[in-house]
Each structure stands twice: as C-alpha cells, then as structure tokens.
Amino acid sequence: MAGAGKMYIRFWGVRGSIATPGRETVRYGGDTSCIEIRCGREIFILDAGSGIRKLGAKILKEKPQHISILFSHFHWDHIQGFPFFAPVFNKEYSITLVGERKMNFTLEQLFTAQMMFPYFPLSLSELDAKISFHEITRNDSIIKNSVTIKLACLNHPGGCIGYRIEYGGKSFVYATDTEHYSCIDKSLLDLSLNADVLVYDCNYTEDEYSGKNGSPKSGWGHSTWNQGIKIAKAAKVKKFILFHHDPSHDDEFIDKLEKQAQKEFKESYAAYEGMEINL
Ligand SMILES: [Zn+2]
Ligand SMILES: [Zn+2]
Fold first, then answer.
1. How far is the CA of 5 from the centre of ligand 1 (A)?
2. Nearest bound ligand to CA 160?
3. 105 CA to centre of ligand 2 in angstroms
4. How many domains does the chain have?
C-alpha cells in the first residue's frame, strides 16, 4: 500500500513478446509485461503478462480488496499470466478487467476465449473471484476515487491503449506496444505532457528497426528508445523508462542501451523486474 496521496510503482514483467528466462536475462528479468501501481489504497495493474503471477502471490498476503487490471491490448505477452493470478481463485476478491472491445467481441468474450477448451483446464466462469468488465473507448477517461486515468490510442497491429494515471499531483504514463510515426505521435505527446514517468516501447534498436543487419521491423508495431526520447523531451517528462525488451536482448545488451539512452536523456532507465518508483 502507498501512503495517502502517494503513488508506488513496481515492475513485475518487462519483457516483450515471450517470456525469456535464463542466465543471460536474470538481471532485467524474463517475465512479460506487468506493472503494479498503488495510488493510496487503490490497486491498479497494467497488463497481465507472465509477471503477474508473482504479484498475485504478494497481493494474497494482504487483506482482500478490489483490484483493477488495465489491459493495453490482448496479445499473449499481455494476458498470458491472467489465469495464474492467484486472487482470481479467491472469492474474497473482486477484480475489474478494463480494456477495449475488439471488433465484435466484448471484453468478457475475449477473456472467455483465452480460457476456452482445449487451451486451459478451467473456464472463466469457474474462477472464484467476482470478475467484472469495464469496456473503454478511446476517448474515455476513468475517475476512481481520487485517481484519474486518461487514455490514448497507440500505433500497433489490432490497436493498443496507452494509459496515463494521475494521483496526488503525480502522473505515470504507460505506452508500450506502439510504433512511432515519421513525426511525433500527437496523441501520445498529449498523454505524456509533463508526466513524472513515461514507460515506452523500446523493443528495437534503430539498426534492428531499419533492417541494417536483418529484415526491417517497420510495420511490426514496436519502437526504439531513440524515438521514445524524442517524445520524452517534447513532452518534458521527468523520467524515461525503456520497456518491452526484445527476447533477443540479454542483460549486457540492455546495459548498453541504457547507457546510450542516458547520453541523450539523463533520466533514462531500463526497466527491470523488481524496479520500484515512488512518486
Ligand atoms: Zn507486447
Ligand atoms: Zn502487442
């Protein structure tokens, strides 16, 4: 729990695409996207990648409470931990899943499909927690007690939502799974304006993106730290976090990216499992 008026953030999964355990990824971690945000007593979770499993074990040690899970989108690396999030098997918890409808599928249908036979041994309706669904559209904002959550549409195959969470005069922006345009993305710039923290999709290096040493990655829906720092500077954010590390980037490689990014923007940090930020 964070004190009243305080925001506490902890990273539980920072990897993109697929979990990558192993000796070469042990420092930054191999679990996929999941961030815990505490705004006073309120619990928000950004995405349910494989990192959410350990977060669930931590939450179970606390008094049962309501939890909101905000989904950027429904690619595997952002949802695969959901059925392994222990509070879903405890009837004392109520959990609201927040996200967009996709085509004609309601949010409930999307999660029902994830756990459908033969992909998982239990169905969504067999979970013990009280699960509810909050469908958002791109221009919505959510106000819950004294927390304000704003949204922006990101550039990713099938669509993706960026979130800005404001509480106690502080702001945290989560913008993963987005590909930059040739000019600065105006909606992401607006979302990030004067934010204390910007978490950004730094999946590729500029060389990987342009295809210098292989096939180009343009159109794959991801970005680079160089492009993220353009937004960080234009939006005057205080801290820039490199996130959604590519599965092929080992610890040493990410160390280098962090150093390069810091030369351009001093307050740049590569996200790692267990990283904490207090605002
Ligand atoms: Zn992803
Ligand atoms: Zn994705």
1. 31
2. 2
3. 18
4. 1
Establish if 109 belongs to a structural domain: yes
Give the residue numbers spanning the domain of 256: 7-278
Distance 49 CA to ligand 2 centre (A): 11
Q: Record the tokens describing residue 68, joined without a space.
A: 């909101």
Closest to 76 in 3D by CA, of 120, 37, 137, 22:
120
17 alpha carbon, closest ligand: 1
Q: 193 CA distance to ligand 1 centroid (A)?
A: 23
Name the closest ligand to CA 220. 2
- pLDDT of the chain along its 279 residues, tens only? 688 899 999 999 999 999 999 999 999 999 999 999 999 999 999 999 999 999 999 999 999 999 999 999 999 999 999 999 999 999 999 999 999 999 999 999 999 999 999 999 999 999 999 999 999 987 788 998 899 999 999 999 999 999 999 999 999 999 999 999 999 999 999 999 999 999 999 999 999 999 998 999 999 999 999 999 999 999 999 999 999 999 999 999 999 999 999 999 999 999 999 999 999
ω before 121 within 30° of 0 (cis)? Answer: no
Question: Which residue carries 């995405």 as its tokens?
Answer: 47
The domain that holds 15 is classified in CATH as: 3.60.15.10
**Does 2 fall in a domain?**
no
CA–CA dist 207, 171 (Å, integer): 32
Predicted model pTM = 0.97
Residue 213, Cβ density class (10 Å: 0-12 exposed, 13-18 middle, ≥19 buried):
exposed
Decide if 1 is inside a domain: no
CA of 248 to the centre of ligand 1 (A): 14
Report if residue 27 sits inside a domain: yes
Ligand nearest to the CA of residue 16, numbered in listed order: 1
